[in-house]
Amino acid sequence: MALQCRLSGATFQSLKLATIPISSSSSRFIFRTLPKTLNLALFSRHSAPKAPPFSVLIRTLSAPAVAAAPAAETSDIKVVKPQWNAAIDFKWIRDNKEAVAVNIKNRNSNANLELVLQLYDKMLNLQKEVERLRGERNNVANKMKGKLEPAERQKLIEEGKNLKEALTTLEEDLVKLRDELQIEAQCIPNLTHPDVPIGWEDSSKLRNMVGSPRKFDFPVKDHLQLGKELDLFDFDAAAEVSGSKFYYLKNEAVMLEMALVNWTLTEVMKRGFTPLTTPEIVRSSVVEKCGFQPRGENTQVYSVEDSDQCLIGTAEIPVGGIHMDSIVAESALPLKYVAFSHCFRTEAGAAGTATRGLYRVHQFSKVEMFILCRQEESDMYHEELIKIEEDLFSSLGLHFKILDMATGDLGAPAYRKFDVEAWMPGLERYGEISSASNCTDYQSRRLGIRYRPSESPSTTSKKGKTNVAATKFVHTLNATACAVPRMLVCLLENFQQEDGSVSIPHPLRPFMGGVEAIYPKSR
Amino acid sequence: MKGKLEPAERQKLIEEGKNLKEALTTLEEDLVKLRDELQIEAQCIPNLTHPDVPIGWEDSSKLRNMVGSPRKFDFPVKDHLQLGKELDLFDFDAAAEVSGSKFYYLKNEAVMLEMALVNWTLTEVMKRGFTPLTTPEIVRSSVVEKCGFQPRGENTQVYSIEDSDQCLIGTAEIPVGGIHMDSIVAESALPLKYVAFSHCFRTEAGAAGTATRGLYRVHQFSKVEMFILCRQEESDMYHEELIKIEEDLFSSLGLHFKILDMATGDLGAPAYRKFDVEAWMPGLERYGEISSASNCTDYQSRRLGIRYRPSESPSTTSKKGKTNVAATKFVHTLNATACAVPRMLVCLLENFQQEDGSVSIPHPLRPFMGGVEAIYPKSR
Fold first, then answer.
1. How confident is the model at residue A488 (pLDDT cuts 50, 70, 90)?
2. Average pLDDT of every residue of chain A
3. Is the N end or the C end of chain A the one with fewer CB atoms within 10 Å?
4. pLDDT, average across residues A302-322
5. Phi, psi of A314, rounded to the nearest 5 degrees
6. What are the coiled-coil residue ranges (chain A) (predicted)?
7. What are phi and psi of A515, to 5 degrees?
8. A455 interface with B at CB cutoff 8 Å
9. Which residue among A249, A265, A266 sits closest to B134, beta carbon to beta carbon?
């Protein structure tokens, strides 16, 4: 659902929504995890107990030379420890740099692969140097154990001291280098499924279409007009109380929202998903680990004042966080969750007619599916998720198409993304009601979610000792089962009747106390 | 200065006029400052109090009514946290990592139970003529203040949004109170009765201790809230109606509870009178507040600017058809908790636990849970 909010790894996705003019030299800074205002005192008060003390990468926007220069001088940049580290396989990136470069280009990412490779090289060399010096220091220490002339001993003591100082400096440089490498490498977007079309929105490929647009023999009303006539929502009062893009649901719309959520949860539970409700306030680090940017310009994320907490834009975030920093038994996989939550999005940069009424709002209810699975199975579960969505939306009688989104439209975390766009007769176009992404190991490398493959019998020695297999990163997938406001738009506009009533799809009726239609109120 | 004057006389008057103008400007500025200061001080004055309200603190609160009695258990009673763990109903540990303490995930039947509670409560209250609503959960801080809360006080209960004048609501009372802000409602429209479902967010700053374990005190929860706007003469009557609805709801679920008329020291500034419902929680071995019903008379409406125009009586209509427009009056507002989900979960789990470790679902909720009759321990 509306994954345009993903900004990490720098896609130009947000440019389509935002109208900020971006010059090419400063563009890479817009998409980084860089708050413009820094309050180090604030951070130190609220650092999580486990996380190392953290500050923020400071890059002056007036230094485009840093972007252009291949070898960034660390003296220009105050690199301080990132709050958390993604488990990135630098060696793999180096060994596959052509493929990674092509992928970055196809996704229009701002990641700087050259810089990553240089920093990695530098780091390896520095590591060697550090090891060499350590070796020498050990030599000196060993020599000092034997019998020595005072002059010789003094010389060795001097040498030892010099080595220690040099080592300390190099070790500090190594830490800084590692941190910078980490930050640069974390910008690299996920790989892409080979079948994904390359290009922008118009390159997205149609996978499937279900149903066809209904033929109306009376004038079609849009959901706003229907809502007004049926007394289903109030945007005006909400504008006074909260601001634009907020709303109250009233009367049957309230029951319809509950029926949609209830029915969706029930249907998805039947398919083996564990139902959840989640916190809607989370630590900003968890938001970042899922691939979102709480503090980027034009961020989609609301932050809570005086804290390191944010409001979630999707239940994908708190669900992704459940198994953070843990090793799951392979036998426990797949873990399948269906989570209901309210979602909050700033929708910064989004304007225009496509944002009227319920189509684009700051707060909404959503039922989200989330799967953690073995690496070999993520493609299969991606197919399972899109099939579930297809079943759900057909049951409701909607007409929709399923798109295989092109590389330019994938967020950094997604290996592959299927969007569902449903026909909205009042808006006279298709509108996105759902999104299913396979994030492979992008999120799990950041969230630290691994699994231990079960040992095969052949690795168990006769004495009963088992070889412990190396852990692997899980693959994570997420898919919208029901985004309520967009569903309300679809239901109202598609099932309106000539007499002004709206007919309730049959599957929802039992969840609404048997109500069959919403009728105009007598005035 | 309009008449014919000698130049010298005119000049003298001009001087006098100028001095008066300066003096006036200064005084008018002082007046504005004074008004502002008066306003701020006066807004601190709490609402009046119903004559029957006991004077004093918590222990002075008066028992209005008690329904049911504590269930007698013939096996060891578990608290809701233990039941939740054994029945795999919530996760506080993962939430502590992801969000912080006093956050939680609901799992499995607890999710269905929350939905059933909300659904059933809304349905029951709608039957009594209340209009159902869902509300924004982000509101302007001015609206929070007008309802009588303090977004920026020390130990505030209110979460604020960074770089904005917005806050998260602690109760749907706030966005519902705001619906008719700055307007004049026709008397014939009253009473306006709303039942609103929302998530609520509270910092719970300053709350600590054992009374805060588990679901009893959390930062985020679902709540169904009743809100009435009515004519001044009718608020006492609607206060009785609201507490009666609560009594009916909680008895239907089979809970044992007492209703208290809260003493003056325990009323918030807006409340003219407040009834609290405390239900028996056998796992906690005490009564815990599950609901509150307040009559705020015109405290909130004077701040939110909600008036009504009384209908003219026929005697004020002159023969020429001209009607005398009656002066507007401030509505009275009331609010009452129909269902605060976490506290209800504590009550249901602890009261309806069975010896075999299962929890029995109250009959009224079963149809809203697909007919599920009980929550059973999962086989492991």
1. very high
2. 84
3. C
4. 96
5. -165, 150
6. 116-180
7. -60, 130
8. no
9. A249
In DSSP notation, A461-502 reads -TTS-BPPPPPEE-EEEEEEEEEHHHHHHHHHHHTB-TTS-E
End-to-end CA distance of chain B: 100
Quick one: CA dihedral B215, B220, B226, B228, positive or negative? positive
B358 assigned to active site: no
- Provide the pLDDT for residue A7: 38
pLDDT at A72 over 50: no
Is residue A263 within a helix (H) or strand (E), and if so which, with residue range? helix A252-270
Q: Are strands A335-344 and A274-277 parallel, antiparallel or unpaired?
A: parallel
**Four-residue CA torsion sign, B179, B184, B189, B193:** positive
Active-site residue B202, yes or no? yes
The residue from B114, B202, B241, B278 that is catalytic is B202
Task: Tell me which chain B residues have a C-beta less than 8 angstroms from the C-beta of A277.
Answer: 105-106, 111, 114
Task: Show residues of chain A in contact with B115, CB under 8 Å.
Answer: 258, 261-262, 265
Quickly tell me which residue has 């604020």 as its tokens. Answer: B160
- CA closest to A343 among chain B residues: B137
Query: In the predicted model, is pLDDT for residue A253 greater than 80?
Result: yes
List the single residue in A with minimal CA-CA distance to B162.
Answer: A305
pTM above 0.80, yes or no: yes
B138 vs A251: CB contact, 8 Å cut-off?
Answer: no
Has residue A68 got a pLDDT over 70? no
Whether B343 is a known active-site residue: answer yes
A42 pLDDT band, cuts 50/70/90, is very low
Q: Between A279, A322, A340, which is nearest B220 by CB?
A: A279
Question: Which ranges constitute the DSSP H helices of chain B?
Answer: 7-42, 80-86, 93-98, 109-127, 141-146, 173-179, 235-252, 299-304, 341-351
Q: How distant is the Cα of B277 from the closest Cα of chain A, in angstroms?
A: 27
Q: Any long-range contacts for A48-54 (C-beta under 8 Å, 24+ apart)?
A: A48/A283, A48/A285, A48/A308, A51/A83, A51/A84, A51/A285, A52/A81, A52/A83, A53/A81, A54/A80, A54/A81, A54/A82, A54/A83
Encoded tokens for B211: 């009374």
Average pLDDT per block of 10 residues along chain B, 380 residues long: 87 93 95 95 95 93 96 95 96 97 97 97 97 98 93 87 96 97 96 98 78 87 98 97 98 97 94 98 94 97 96 56 74 98 97 97 95 85
Q: Which two tokens stand for residue A107?
A: 């996704």
Residues 193-252 on B with a CB inside 8 Å of A are 197, 199, 201, 219-220
Q: Residues B198, B222, B292, B294: which is the catalytic one?
A: B292
Structure tokens at A305: 């004042």
SS3 A158: helix
Model pLDDT for residues A376-402, shown as the tens digit of each residue: 999 999 999 999 999 999 999 999 999
Q: Which of A268, A324, A405 lies closest to A51 in space, CA to CA? A: A324
CB contact under 8 A, A243 and B134: no
pLDDT-based confidence at A66, cuts 50/70/90?
very low
* Structure ipTM over 0.90, yes or no: yes
Query: Helix, strand, coil: what percent of chain B each, to 5?
Result: 40, 25, 35
Average pLDDT over residues A219-246: 96
Cα of A119 to nearest chain B Cα, Å: 32
The answer to whether the CB atoms of B182 and A237 lie below 8 A apart is: no
Q: Read off φ and ψ for residue B307, nearest 5 degrees.
A: -120, 170
